[in-house]
Amino acid sequence: MNIPYVNLAGQNRVVKKEILQAIGKVLESGQFILGKEVEAFERSFANLCGTEYALGVGTGTDALVLALRVLNIGPGDSVITVANSFISTASSIVLVGAKPVFVDVGEDYNINPRLIEKAINSRTKAILPVHLTGRPADMKSILEIAKKHKLTVIEDCAQAVGAEYREKCVGSFGTIGCFSLHPLKNLNACGDGGALTTNDRNLYRKLQILRNNGFSTRDNCAAWSDNSRLDTIQAALLLVKLNYLKKWTDRRRENAEFYQKHLSCLTQVKVPVERPYEKSVYHTFVIQAQDRDRLSNFLGRKGIGTKIHYPIPIHLQPAAKSLKQKSGSLLMTEKQAKMILSLPIYPELTTKQLSYIVNCIYDFYNQ
């Protein structure tokens, strides 16, 4: 059996006709930049996240950079975040001239709130939690710490569109939420894309200007800025996919439950388990496995694709040398990096395929 780690073609096949019709309407309109579909997507996305405003931008990285910029975070400032995320979480902080300060994570792969206050100093301006794997971080504790120390909270929701914490969607807790719409995300464009969410009208208006070369009107430039606009064609197809997001998310959760049910009795494997007040969207289904590399190779020989998210924590990347955070400084992050393995979780997986994956994992450990 051949089971790739992702199956984008399979997903797009289901909605291909609708997507082509939506793209056709954009081609006929000739409004390729900030067209009506972008506005419609922003309204729908804000409604999904439970916020007053949403803004489409070019990439998830741009969303993070723009959030930091609009909050006047820059040289001399520091931002508390995690090192087990995709590189953009930290690089966005560096790109605005600030310094990322890494805090270790808990068993859920998210920032450990008990360690945040130790990392706060006079230069700290914000906390940037990541809802990694599609599982919400402990926002109640994070917001309490931020309020106590008068810090801003920026949510990295790149992997967590639709995830809920205490019946409230991620992206609605902090001052700004930042999302990626990359092809590999649960809600995905056919190319790069990103979005921001906020309840602050003033910040929303400033972000509209910053994403559009700093133009406040067609002829007046209010600020020096980059160009980061969500393409109208991408917005049109995202509107189509929004109609399927709940169905796809439900299916991901069903697949996760299958893994949890059938792998939890393996002593060599640790599966993620949600808390009662969490609703994960399982962008990735990450297990911690003994002999991880051998297991991955074994599954590969059986035709099963797997990935590691991520094998080298950010603080140990060559680009992070100037931060001078050595190996051993983030014990849980580094321990998990040696054991984590992402299994296929996409909605199109069949029960037969899931059973095959589980059986192969049992075969490996029963050798």
Task: Please describe what this structure looks like.
This protein is α/β, with parallel strands linked by helices and 367 residues long. Helix content is 39%, strand content 13%. Strand 2, helix 4 and strand 3 form a beta-alpha-beta unit. The longest helix is centred in the first third of the chain and has 22 residues, at 8-29. The protein folds into 2 domains: 8-242, Type I PLP-dependent aspartate aminotransferase-like (Major domain) (Aspartate Aminotransferase, domain 2), CATH 3.40.640.10; 245-365, Alpha-Beta Complex (Aspartate Aminotransferase, domain 1). It has a 7-stranded mixed sheet, sandwiched between helices. A 3-stranded antiparallel sheet has the order 7-6-11, with no helix packed on it. It has a 3-stranded antiparallel sheet with strand order 10-12-13. The model has no long low-confidence stretch (mean pLDDT 97). The protein has helices spanning 8-29, 36-49, 60-70, 88-95, 116-119, 139-149, 201-210, 232-242, 245-263, 292-301, 331-337, 351-365, and strands at residues 53-57, 78-81, 99-102, 124-127, 152-156, 164-165, 168-169, 176-180, 194-198, 269-270, 278-279, 285-289, 340-343.
What's the layout of helices and strands?
Layout lengths: L7 H22 L6 H14 L3 E5 L2 H11 L7 E4 L6 H8 L3 E4 L13 H4 L4 E4 L11 H11 L2 E5 L7 E2 L2 E2 L6 E5 L13 E5 L2 H10 L21 H11 L2 H19 L5 E2 L7 E2 L5 E5 L2 H10 L29 H7 L2 E4 L7 H15 L2
Parallel strand pairs: 2-3, 2-4, 4-5, 5-8
Antiparallel strand pairs: 1-9, 6-7, 6-11, 8-9, 10-12, 12-13
